[in-house]
Amino acid sequence: MAVIQYREALNQAIDEEMHRDEDVLIMGEEVAQYNGAYKVTRGILDKYGAQRVLDTPITECGFTGVGIGAAMSGLRPIVEWMTYNFAFQAIDQVINNAAKLRYMTGGQVQMPIVFRGPNGAAGRLAAQHSHACGTYYAHVPGLIVVAPYTAYDAKGLLKSAIRSNDPVCLLEGEILYGDKGEVPEEEYLVPLGKANVTREGDDVTLVSYGCTLACVYEAADKLTEQGISVEVVDLRTIRPIDEETVYSSVNKTNRCVVIDESWEHCSVGSSVAYMISRNCFDSLDAQVELVSGLDVPMPYNSRLEQAVKPSAQRVIDAVNTVLYND
Fold first, then answer.
1. Which of 101, 231, 281, 301 is deepest in the core (most CB within 10 A)?
2. Whole-model pTM above 0.85?
3. More confident of the two residues 224 and 121
């Protein structure tokens, strides 16, 4: 398999789907002539022209609404937000229109639209540009929310999202765009709503998603050196949650730590921890632990930023807690 960057995997997905289906188009700030703020749309304008690759004004509410209207009319738009932090300007369009119109029309109106862009803290972008936004959208019925960690999943999930008849929010890790991974040359899809057990173990289950998996794998490596067998579940989709895969892993290991970059209060992580506590109660040998972002606005200072985000050491400490190793 070819080894390519995360951004290149996303680019391939967009290119292949636009080639396959002439109803697919992409719009957003700087997606055309500038090739995208993170170069995800490099070369797409040259291939498909300005009718299907549209540079928009700096008005998320406006062009998100245009995309929703296009989806209602039968097109398959991809709306690129330069960052999910800017998407707060369009959250009314997403929640009150995209997420609800299929339900409110009794299924007469489909909503085949993808909202994509970078999510989460990147590196000293301070409080207004470092939100982990998954919880905001995963809270809403009618939306599908996915967060790929690898280049393989980024391509496969984006292709599936473009083909979906329901609105999909694709959360791309801003710090992942330059990361490389193996991606098959032949076409493939990664199903929406399906988690992946990326590492098998017997002593404890670590459940996470998106770029936070970097510190999860670092912790897993260190724990393995200590003789602790760790199983890792990459949720990939955070609405809907693949409960079957999560419960199967926890019922095997009997212990669980959930890791989420979001703030703890009312987060995806706290919801997953509750679901595990409720549905795996008889199998658990310890309470479920949650490692999350600290409950403060993201600092600008680099050391403080790292202290706020989940870390490998905090994951290790949580594992030792559920193993009663303190």
1. 231
2. yes
3. 224
